[in-house]
Amino acid sequence: MDKIYLNKLEFYGYHGLFPEENKLGQRFYVDLVLELSLQKAGKTDDMVDSINYGTVFQLTKEIVEGQPKNLIEAVADEIATQLLSAFEKLFACTVKVYKPDPPIAGHYKSVAVEIYRENSK
Fold first, then answer.
1. Dihedral angle at the C-alpha atoms of 75, 81, 87, 92, nearest 10 degrees?
2. Phi, psi of 63 (to 5 degrees)
3. Is 3 a catalytic residue?
4. Which ranges carry the Dihydroneopterin aldolase/epimerase domain (predicted)?
């Protein structure tokens, strides 16, 4: 399967278990891997045969910057669900959501979850 990668999309959201996270918000990063056939798009050079990256970015932004969730697991799942629903050409997607500044004592670059979902159509 061919793949489209969107790397380190950056957003500001209000997800987390603690009231401070929901009030102050923080940065979130998202990596996406979209699996679909790009054979036709490669031959026709026509956007209708692929997936518009800007539309993918906007959909992801609306979720990450939208309604707060307790868990980044839920954020990742909603992104995957919405992408698979919005793009009929999409066979599967991998969504990785990074939370670089969680309220955890210690030294680390970030925490993250990664999920893989396939289209059930």
1. 100
2. -75, -50
3. no
4. 4-117
Task: Tell me how far the alpha carbon of residue 4 is from its chain's centroid.
Answer: 13
Q: How would you write the pLDDT of the chain (121 residues) with one tens digit per residue?
A: 999 999 999 999 999 998 888 899 999 999 999 999 999 999 999 999 999 999 999 999 999 999 999 999 999 999 999 999 999 999 999 999 999 988 888 888 889 999 999 998 6
What is the Cα–Cα distance from 35 to 77, expressed in whole angstroms? 16
**CATH number (domain holding residue 7):** 3.30.1130.10
* pLDDT recorded at residue 102: 84
Name every residue whose Cβ is closer than 8 Å to that of residue 38 and which is 6 or more positions away in sequence: 2, 4, 49, 50
Per the residue annotation, which of 23, 99, 109, 121 is the catalytic one?
99
pLDDT at 121: 64
Which letter does DSSP use for residue 47 in this model? Answer: G
Q: How many domains does the chain have?
A: 1
Task: Supply the range of the domain harboring residue 44.
Answer: 2-118
Encoded amino acid at 13, one letter: G
